[in-house]
Amino acid sequence: MTFVSNDPSWWPFIDSQVFSSYWIVAAVVVVAYDWVLTIGQEIELIWRQHWSLMTVLYLVIRYIGILYSVASVLGNILEYAMNWTNVVMTAMLGVIMIARLHAMYQGSRTMLLFLVIIFLAVNIACVVLAAMGLKYMVTAELILSGIHMCGYDYEGDAQLLDSIIWVLSTVWEVLALCLSVWITVKHFRDLRRLGPSSGSTIGDCFRVLMKSHVLYFASFAGVSCFQLISVSPAFLNSSSTAAMIYVGTHVVLGVVQMFVLGPRLILSVREYHAKLVAGSDADTSMNSIVFQEHVHISTSGTV
């Protein structure tokens, strides 16, 4: 369907679309810049190691992220594909979360079962809701004041379904954050009871947990809460500069959440473990907080 109009009332909409495109380009730059910064680590810690589930997840998320960012510049023509990419990437990031929490809880089968059940329930519900929402999606070619653009709109209860999806995702990520904080505090308290002689171990353990686990989950939960606000009707129906800046920031943070945080977590854990193994005074008590997968550099088989 093609819609043609020269009505000046559409000018704010045109301005908002142009303004939004700048943020989309900024998101592409962020993903590409992060890839350039970490390419050395990627070659050393990913490509040169034995392949595992985390290796596959890293490569898929990293390079699908680059393609996704470039595709987003092409406009709404790929909106269907991008929406389903969001669903798939969110599920893959959930697998990384489960792997990290499972390792932090020292391979507890009870915790693994609990996480898998919650993860499946949330993701199955999100997939069903996303499929229902896409049925209400209407696309059209717009020619506004001589400017061609692809547009889409959601009818019916699409906005409500979208909000429910974000609520469920946020609940899952907040749960992951709470579990990581709890086990971090527990590790810290247990190690303190070992006495002054374990001071360096406490510092190393606490630093690694905070840097590569708790901060990761906190960032994920924070971005989800930020996105949850951006889908509220007050922002969706507003054309003010503040609302456009907020929505644009949400676009950049959403891309960072999906395609930067996950790969960064995997690289940080592998880099730390590589240094730990290389050090002559490595403490074997750190084995309980590294990835449970086989890597060439590992002497414990749990990276």
Reported for the largest beta sheet, the result is:
3 strands, mixed
Global geometry: globular
Number of strands: 3
Helix content: over 70%
**Number of helical segments with 4 or more residues:** 9
N-to-C SSE string, H for helix and E for strand: EHHHHEEHHHHH
Strand order across the biggest sheet? Answer: 1-2-3
Report how far apart the termini are: 53 Å
Question: What fraction strand?
Answer: 5-15%
Specify the oligomeric state.
single chain
What is the radius of gyration computed over CA atoms, rounded to a whole number of angstroms? 22 Å
Helix/strand/pairing category: mainly alpha
Low-confidence stretches: 280-303
- Give the integer mean of the pLDDT values: 76
Give the topology.
Elements: E1 2-5, H1 11-47, H2 53-73, H3 79-104, H4 109-134, E2 137-144, E3 147-154, H5 158-192, H6 199-230, H7 233-236, H8 241-259, H9 261-278
Parallel strand pairs: 1-2
Antiparallel strand pairs: 2-3
Write a brief caption for the model.
The chain has 303 residues and is mainly α. It contains 9 helices and 3 strands, in the order βααααββααααα.
Sum up the structure in keywords:
single chain; 303 residues; mainly alpha; 3 strands; globular; disordered C terminus
